[in-house]
Amino acid sequence: MTDLRQACARLLLVGFQGREVDGDVGGLVDAGVLGAILFGRNVGTAAETSLLVRQLKSRAGRPLAVAVDQEGGRVARLRGAPYTPLPPMRAIGQRADAETARKVGRLLAFELRATGFDWDFAPVLDVDSNPANPVIGDRSFGANPAEVARLGVALAEGMERGGVASCGKHFPGHGDTLQDSHLTLPVLEHGLARLEAVELVPFRAYARAALASVMTAHVRFPALGEDVAATMSRASITELLRERIGFDGVVVSDDLEMKAISDPTAAAVDAVRAGVDVLLVCHHAAVQHRVLDALVAAARKGIVTEERLREAHARIDALVGRFVRPAEDRVGELGSSEHRRMIEDLPLGPTSPAVAGWDPTARPGAPG
Known about the structure:
alpha/beta
């Protein structure tokens, strides 16, 4: 490869502070990162957010992926008029209607595309099998693996037909944990038979549908034979997700700055070696530069092979070619008659005490 640093930078999707393209994120864009992820801290009005996306893409002067966590419910970065205040995915699960899920996916794509986003880290494919789970809960479609699979695939298909890449998360499954991986490294002790019957069902369906991307879980699964989080586990990513399940889209890590990860630089190298294609590093430029330096050093030593980089680039190129678009100013389409018709076609509303307690004005929860 002619420029090893650029080749490694292309594996990074970075977050940043504030509502403008400052020197930190601008320098990383110049270095060749794949793209940026926006959080609530970056988002102003629809017009301001659209302008920020356009500035990022203009700075790059090349296809630059801009991503967001826009699930609905408590994890939604774009809030307030003219965006639609979608309820959590549990509401769609209670409707149990794939066409409704597909329309929600189309609506999400419509609003994201109009603002300039290319990639949405949704839907959650975790099965809500543990009421004490502190991080999934109503973000899941429900407790029935087949229904999570059916509705998750429908929503993702609607989103991708609307021109935005979907991302099923969190592989191999975060639904039955008692800990939040933003704060610690959860362990799921289930054996392979249980994983096959519950956690893996939605991901198999997502893979069969040939959808765009899967996000890893910072969760340790002893049954898979490695004493590390799935993000850094070859048994999880290459052997299970790639070879046994047959997923050939982009695999993206959850944020490497979460507390479940003790050393983001070592984790980045291990994740790429395990088969992860894109690394999320969401908060600090210093950490992002250290991760990039670690990848370059590992590539120079042959720890991360040229073949592994080429494989990741091929999948990234396919996603970019299909979904990443030049900067446009289309926020005027939000709230249009077409937009209102899309909203009116969605038979959604509070259908249980849990969903009825959802507050569309609340600030979003933790990322990822």
